Amino acid sequence: MTGDERPNFFILLEIDPDQPWDKSAYENQLRRMRFRWYKLSSGVQTSPAAVKARRALTLLKEIKYVMADVVLRENERAAARQYLADEQNRRRIELVQTVDLILEKGFVYDVEYAELRENYGALVDHPDVSRLLDGAQKRSLEAERNGPDRLDASQADAIRGRLDELGEESLYTLLAQVDPAVGPTSGLDLLRRAAKELYARTTATADKTKPGLSARQELSGQAMAIFDSADMRRQYDNTLQLEPLDRLCRQYRKALDPVRGIDSRQADRFIREAARFGIEEELARNSLVAYFSNLKWTIALPPATAIGAFVRCEVCQAFNDPEHEFCRDCGTPFEVTCPSCGRTVPAHDICGFCGFPVSDHDWVEALLDDCEDLLAAGDLKGADEKLNSARRAWSLPAGSAEDALAARIKECSRRIADVRDEQRKSDAQRMRNIRSHMDARQYRAARHLLSATHAGFPDRERLLGEVTSRVDAADRWYRNAEQAATSEEKAELYGKALEECADHAEARRALRGTPPAPPRDLRVTALDGLVRLEWQPSATGGVRYAVVRKSGSRPASATDGERLATVASLAYDDESPETGIPLHYAVFADRDGTASQQAATTTTDPLLLTQEVTITSPSVDDGAVELRWALPPNAEGVQVSRTSSAEAGTWTDIAAVEPTRLLDGGLRNDVTYTYRLRARFRDGSGGILPSAGRTVSLTPGPPPPPVGTVHVTTRPGFGFAYRYVRLGWEPPEQGRIVVLKTWQPPPVRSGDTLFADDLRLRGTVLDADAALGHSLTESGACYFTPVLVRHELGYVGDVRRYAAVEEVGDLTAEARRGAVRLQWSWPEGCTAVLVGYDRSGEPADPTVAAHRFTVEREEYERLGYHDVHIGRGTGEADCFFVVASLLRQDDEEFVSSGVRCRARRAKRRWMG
């Protein structure tokens, strides 16, 4: 199709001519293409796309006319098919010619093959093309340019340095010292074991100064990493193989450094010497060029490929092929668009059309680099100077489009403004810190902060003068104190220096060397659970008081014993005193960490505090009582005595069978016995001091039958309750049932016995009235534990793990042959349900149904079902079903109240 012919309308509209005609799709495509043509026509007027778009817009009437006429449209379709066929044949011929040109060198690079695939798509699989490509050798361009995959240079240098230190050729010879079987062909498993063994030996060596130990330890670690994978091992082997080539490069660099160039004969000798080490000519040639090009040396390769034929980059001095548009090393373009006039000109010259200094581009970039570095270093003034120089050098005429460099100048200007704003904020924060130090009279710290501020810091000179005068005044008081005759005068003058400047370190140190006078008249009073200390003040002003406690003897200093606190008041309460041992208390005056020494006020007699036993496990039986307890700290034993209502308050001592256990038998049932337990302590003189005693009343009798579980059913909720439940249980023969509710695993177990009054300390206790309707305020896992209360004791039953979660929905029962199918909708987040049924009556709770099954939810399942197979009997009978949500948490299962339904079995079929 020539430029004078009108385009085919199927091709122009991008409509497939092989597809059936769809008028609606055609009209939509015409609207999209018309919008695209309008957009393209507003671009650069001389661009091919704009020209083509304007041409298409002039054809709109003709397009509508042709595509609306059936005959003309079919003629247009046939022409489009022929055009596409011709175009396909043209592209195939072009592809064959391109492949033939590529294979002129005898092989194809991977990037060339990928480019063919991208440009020609399925045409690459055409027999004419695949015949050429299938037999051609494919090479990696990156691998050929970069050479074999090797270790990182720094890692390779570190390994070689350590090997040379030990006189070893390679890691293989080093590991052969551990296992003689190790060699360059050894498997990875053997190499890893040898490396780990070498590391273990070096680590276990006691003499860490042993020569070569550090090198062996580092190399063993490198070996473990390298021989951990086949890829790393291949990189190391390549590095080892190419070490002669690296040494050869370094040798040539040292010898030829004065001229910084290699001629063709020297290059030919390099390639021949590399061949003696088994290195191929192509690899040696590529390595020579790569190594010395990076050093900016001139290179002449044999036989006729001269570096002079290449183009040198003005920025990095690397050599490039003449047809390259950009430097292969640094990416610098060889030609640029002048930002002033828009013409293409050499990148490193003045524009010959408008005189704009295009060659200043690199210098301006360097100025901006310096500007950014100075900004990072906090030098705002220097950054501003560099930015102004860049602005003057790269000043575009008014109306010019902003190029990348101008945009960077603008960005640097914005960043400098941001830094100025940050500096203002920083100055404000620094000023707050300075004011805070000044308010605390820490004038040395304030002076240090002010000295570090910049010259433009607000009010800097006045503030410096103020704080310096206060520091100088404190220095004068300090010098006067140093010349004072008595310690009292010295202490007073040091204090004045600190009043003038609170962070005068020399005055504070000197004041610490002058102990204050002690307090007087310490009074100690033992109260319920604490010891109260009160005293008279020290004669020295401005002190605090250190409270010290010690067992066995009086504290001799503020560090002799346990310092409980340092307070400013004249009283202190020891809220956690030790019990059962004699205690002495002392109070010392403390001034800035220096305590009084000579006349500390201490108590004369020790104080002994008693503590009661803790009853851990009470129980009763037929004519017997058992008590278990825990002794308080430092107690030597316990004295047990007993009385009862029949003994008229007469106490009888009873011997305990064990230090922490009493078994009292031969008692009368249904008679309440009171026991008193008094802990015994040893006082300072060796005597025994008993505690006041703890009493407990118990009534012997046969233990009640085991407590069962509690049943949970749901009641209609109200208010803000998440769930409103009713708790039920079998009524006991004696006593009463309460329920302990907890959101965490209960602190009691089934079968435990405890004092009934202690239940309220372990959770929420629900009596019979509260259990008829209890509100759960939140969802989740809940524990209901029934406890039988009889006399003073509570007997723990089986816990009911309840799931306060959403129930299943839409539960139905459908009769099937020999079974009933239960169906429901899964609630969100539910992963399993418990299905229960009973033929004798509706189960009180899902967990006690006569028959129970767990049904797991399949992933993404919305509806669940379970077939219950029930044996056929005679007559009609009801079967009761319940489906409850299961919640699994911490290896425990929690069951909800469930949703119920029932089905009646007729003589021939089930009826839901």
Automatic annotation (TrEMBL):
Coiled coil: none annotated. It comes from the Bacteria. Residues 609-702 form the Fibronectin type-III domain. The keyword Hydrolase applies. Transmembrane segments: none annotated. The keyword Hydrolase applies. Keywords: Carbohydrate metabolism, Glycosidase, Hydrolase, Polysaccharide degradation. This is Fibronectin type-III domain-containing protein.
